[in-house]
Amino acid sequence: MRKTFTLAAVTALALTGAAQAQPNRGASATLYDQPGFQGNSVTITQSAPDLGRWRFNDRAQSARFEGRWQICEHDNFKGRCQEVRGDVANLHTLGLMAQVSSLEPAGRPPGPGPGGGYSGGPGRDARGIDGARTVFFPRPTVGGLDVAAGDRGADVFCRRQGLGPSVWFDSSERASQAVGPEGQFVGRSTVLRDLLCRKY
């Protein structure tokens, strides 16, 4: 009796662990080459770094998403990315009509970490270029989203990469959605570009 109970408990724990390891289980994205879910379509159920393999690069004009997905304008999740869910009858509303080249199920969204600011380990979004005393980030992003411009947002991003405070950044560009210094999603705002972080 005790053996049976122990085996059942171990099985339950294993199943719970498997479920937690796959938070986007059942996620799917169906892309259509015409607005309003019309025309040819393809359904993606995994990470797709190059939609050219599905013959759907830069073709999607509408889409239906089960679960949360990140869609990007260039291959390998580069360029401008947007997190989406549900039905999008016209990708023009996201500024990505016929411009989606890669997509993947979204992970945990950025949010406040234990000490405030963006969650996630150092270097998660790092694509910096090393200098002698600084690291240069042409287009800082967190979870695929642009970072809202401001001294605090710049400092939080730099420290999140395991670096010192920000030295300089440009804020002349705007994005339709961004992430703020506390990890909150914000609407249209100026965003960080050409960010320099001090190494120490």
Describe this structure in words.
The strands form 3 sheets. Strands 1, 2, 3, 4 and 5 form a 5-stranded antiparallel sheet that branches. The termini are far apart. The protein is elongated. With 200 residues, it is of the alpha+beta class. Strand 6 and strand 7 (134-137) form a beta hairpin. It has helices at 2-21, 151-160; strands at 28-34, 38-44, 62-74, 78-88, 102-105, 129-130, 134-137, 141-142, 145-147, 166-175, 178-179, 185-186, 189-198. The protein has 2 helices and 13 strands. Helix content is 15%, strand content 38%.
Low-confidence stretches: 1-24, 108-116, 118-126
Percent strand: 35-45%
| Structural class by secondary-structure content | alpha+beta
Described by its quaternary structure, the protein is single chain
Instruction: Summarize the amount of helix as a percent range.
Output: 10-25%
Number of helices: 2
Biggest pleated sheet: 5 strands, antiparallel
> How far is the N terminus from the C terminus?
60 Å
Instruction: Determine the mean pLDDT.
Output: 78
Radius of gyration: 20 Å
Report the strand count. 13
Give the ordered list of helices and strands: HEEEEEEEEEHEEEE
| General form | elongated
Short description:
This protein has 200 residues and is an alpha+beta fold. It is 15% helix and 38% strand.
What features would you highlight for this structure?
elongated, 5-stranded antiparallel β-sheet, alpha+beta, 200 residues, 15% helix
Set out the fold topology.
Blueprint: H1 2-21, E1 28-34, E2 38-44, E3 62-74, E4 78-88, E5 102-105, E6 129-130, E7 134-137, E8 141-142, E9 145-147, H2 151-160, E10 166-175, E11 178-179, E12 185-186, E13 189-198
